[in-house]
Every structure is written in C-alpha cells, then in structure tokens.
Amino acid sequence: MKMKSAVVQFYVISLLLSSSLFMLSNADSSPCNGKCNVRCSKARIHDRCLKYCNICCGKCDYCVPSGTYGNKDECPCYRDMKNSKGGPKCP
C-alpha cells in the first residue's frame, strides 16, 4: 500500500514539474516579452515593470512604446491606461 502511494506521489510531482517547465518555456514566446524586456531594461524595479508592461501589452493588442522611457504616443491604449489612483498604469 505504501509503495503505491509513493509511486502515485512521484507521478503527480513529475507531472506538476513538467507542466510548470512547459508553461515557463511558453511564457518566453509571448509577443510582449521581448518588447517589455527592452522597455524595462533600465527600470529600478525590474520585476514590477515587467509585470505591468506585460499586462498593458496584452490589453493593448501587443503594443509597447519603443525605448526604455517615453514615446507613449506610439501606443495610445498603453498611454491612456490608469491605475486605481488615476496615475499611469503602464511603465
């Protein structure tokens, strides 16, 4: 009985690990990742910049302004998104 539960646990853990690795490899293929990596390359808080850039990019038909700062007129949707306090949502 213990052997069966150990085998089942091993199988479940293996399945979870392989599916999470698959998800990580697919995350890199998003059209937003490359654009947001460039946009956030000089950000002091890199992880937060990437998080919000990817959210905005996804909602704005994969549009991310060029460069690391400014140029938001290239993507009006990205430019006009606001956070809950009324400030700019997108980096």
From TrEMBL:
Q: Hey, what's the signal peptide range on this chain? A: 1-27
Superkingdom, according to UniProt? Eukaryota
The record's listing under Pfam families reads: GASA (PF02704)
Q: Which UniProt keywords apply?
A: Gibberellin signaling pathway, Signal
Name the GO terms of the biological process aspect. gibberellic acid mediated signaling pathway
Q: Which InterPro entries match?
A: GASA
* Keyword Nucleotide-binding applies: no
Which family is this sequence assigned to?
Answer: Belongs to the GASA family.
The protein here is known as Gibberellin regulated protein
Per the UniProt entry, what species is this protein from, by scientific name?
Answer: Brassica campestris
